[in-house]
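Quick question, first post here. What does this chain look like in 3D?
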Amino acid sequence: MTSIEEIASTLRNIAAPGMKPKAIRAAVRKRHPEASKKDIVRAAFFAVTEGSSANQDGTPELHNFALAERVAEDNAEVVLLAGKRKKKKHSSGAAGKSRAL
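> Answer (accepted):
Ran it through. Tokens below.
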């Protein structure tokens, strides 16, 4: 299995201004086919935070990529949870009654 540091190094080498997240993932998977999407996102965060400052050109793209992919994962879980909610049952007798004082 490829380490996060190796994937981060690959990300630093391939990231260029204007690259789309899908292109970044595809380029990483060419060199590291066993890397999961989660590994690539973690490596992108690692490259931005812990990596050397040798390649500053791709840093904003890596940062945007990592955030966009992380938000996409988080939203997928929220959508799944929201779809499982049950409707509240309202009692039909309570709506027709008037308040007595």
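The CA atoms of residues 92 and 98 lie 13 Å apart.
The two ends are 73 Å apart (CA to CA).
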